[in-house]
């Protein structure tokens, strides 16, 4: 065993998790390819809030790298992190454009949320919450996330579109963009059926080539593939401390906190379950460190000029390719670093190609449904509601909320209250009060 192999083995326990460096590297690249869309979406969205697009691009990458370095070396888990979708929309469209606050105010709320998360992580509050979730709901979260990202993949690719009469319907399947998505999806399926490692990545790359041929995507106008990273001077360290001790700030900060907490817990639960990293007692080794890495990423992001950094559900694509250790996260971080200088080249990858990967991952994510006791309705009903709420409400957090509330209610009403932990009672009550808040007198 050479020194490099020995170092990697000692650091990441590759053989113990039945993987190797090549598999981990490929898994990190696959995760990057499926989540790289954030490098185009997030700068554009935050630019609507008045932020410098180039600065947000660089800040997002740097904060993502910091978070993944902690996830890789500190937690040794195969998760990619970057600016969370949904949270960036709340940042722009609610806090700035609806409530009328400056974007620096929103960044301050993100910063404070991250600090609170770090404190909670040190006191193991987030880890305790993770361990309190029953196995049936953990498995349901994995399935729900699979359905959720399948819906994202179908709508992003254009294979499914909005329709006033039926809400959703099939798109134009004979259009050029659809051809790219269908070709990529079928190629991924064929290669997966043949047990080809890197099937999703090869499908993305082949889909990109077809997109170039069909004119769905084009090479950069200048022909350049190298560029220096845009400056972050316009967005970094621009926190807003005026009037922060207000109900508005508390409301904004709590919303960031709530969504980030349960999206992160849900993603860690679902992806870790698929990766077979969950132990028999329901514990995920290193979950506390993973949650701390997520919190550190959020604080770093606020300081560098981007919205909340969170663990990406697209990490499931890397897990599906065999990623099992922190080396996958470090590999993903490496490609984020490369994208600082080669973004013109990475930007040609069409959404249709990466969307096909999300659809395939949706299939991989639903397998834990076989572990749910479907004949025990106190377990299966909450699990089912968790699964369907995520895609239909377009929110991982809402799926967890509905699942926890119904789990506690059914257990209590059927005389099985001893199967419910104290933490679950508290969480269900908090979630219920959140939904009942509009009709409460306080």
From TrEMBL:
TM segment ranges: 25-42, 54-75, 103-123, 143-162, 174-193, 200-219, 291-313, 325-346, 353-372, 392-410, 422-440
Record's keyword annotation contains Transmembrane: yes
Pfam families: Xan_ur_permease (PF00860)
Swiss-Prot/TrEMBL keywords: Cell membrane, Membrane, Transmembrane, Transmembrane helix, Transport
Compartmental location: Cell membrane
InterPro entries found in the cross-reference section: Azg-like (IPR045018), Azg-like_bact_archaea (IPR026033), NCS2 (IPR006043)
Family statement drawn from the similarity comment of this UniProt entry: Belongs to the nucleobase:cation symporter-2 (NCS2) (TC 2.A.40) family. Azg-like subfamily.
PANTHER family cross-referenced by the UniProt entry: XANTHINE/URACIL PERMEASE C887.17-RELATED, XANTHINE_URACIL PERMEASE C887.17-RELATED
Name of the protein this chain belongs to: AGZA family xanthine/uracil permease-like MFS transporter
Organism phylogeny: Bacteria, Bacillati, Bacillota, Tissierellia, Tissierellales
